[in-house]
TrEMBL record:
It comes from Desulfofervidus auxilii. The keyword DNA repair does not apply. The lineage of its organism: Bacteria, Pseudomonadati, Thermodesulfobacteriota, Candidatus Desulfofervidia, Candidatus Desulfofervidales. InterPro entries: BCAA_transport (IPR051010), Leu-bd (IPR028081), Peripla_BP_I (IPR028082). This is Leucine-binding protein domain-containing protein. Pfam families: Peripla_BP_6. Belongs to the leucine-binding protein family. Keywords: Signal. It comes from the Bacteria.
């Protein structure tokens, strides 16, 4: 039997309440969740009760060190940031960049790995700003960015308000190259409309050796090849 609880759009309080109900009242044998935002507040609860928790989408250092009962079969958050930093520096020839990120577990992890790799390669992060995921007015940040004139902007922003950042940036004439991660989902692209044109983003990460194995398993199961098995850079 599978039991479901609602995290109410990644609310930590709702997620914790759901975990406690499933463990204490429903007596579950294991838990399944999707991303690091959901797993971070409930990992201590599953560890304390010695109940396994499987994270399906994200894999990162937090999840790896979250406790012996926390597992993941997901994609590397850190390597996504590293890959984009390498692409920005080596392929796009960007040497100075700004980082705008939400106060959010995924955003903090991926922007940190991007920044560290970009600086390791010799690039400069000339501006960095954190903002609440609920913020809808980015004009002050955009004004600051226009003054700094970065060649590129890495925006680690989660849906849905990430679309507002792009729309406002385009309206205010911010002409830098925009780069981001796998939270740049189709819903955001649709909401941003023409403001999303030209944005570079990374998709899910799997090592190429592992990807070939996944590809064969997928073909055997579904009879056709998957669209993409390993991290690539996409442009809208």
């Amino acid at each position: 039997m599978v039991l479901y609880e609602d995290d109410q759009s990644l609310s930590p309080v709702a997620t914790v309440n759901a975990a406690n109900k499933l463990i204490k009242s429903d007596k579950i044998d294991c838990g399944i969740t999707m991303i690091v935002e959901e797993s971070r507040p409930i990992a201590p609860i599953f560890n304390k009760n010695k109940i396994p928790l499987l994270v399906l989408w994200d894999s990162n250092e937090f999840i790896r060190s979250a406790g012996e009962y926390i597992f993941s079969n997901g994609f590397s958050t850190e390597k996504a940031g590293i890959l984009m930093a390498q692409f920005a520096y080596n392929n796009l020839k960007i040497k100075n960049i700004a980082v705008v990120k939400h106060v959010d577990p995924w955003a903090e992890i991926i922007s940190k790995s991007f920044k560290q790799e970009f600086e390791r390669l010799g690039g400069n992060v000339i501006y960095e700003q954190s903002v609440s995921p609920s913020e809808k007015d980015y004009r002050k940040i955009i004004t600051d960015l226009k003054k700094k004139k970065p060649e590129g902007i890495y925006f680690a922003l989660v849906p849905p308000n990430s679309a507002l950042f792009l729309i406002q940036a385009r309206q205010m004439g911010l002409s830098s190259i925009f780069l981001t991660g796998d939270a740049f989902i189709p819903d955001v692209i649709t909401a941003a409309g023409s403001a999303s044109e030209g944005v570079f983003f990374t998709n899910i990460y799997t090592e190429k050796k592992e990807a070939s194995e996944i590809k064969e398993l997928y073909k055997n199961k579904f009879g056709n090849e998957p669209v993409r098995c390993y991290y690539s850079i996409f442009r809208v």
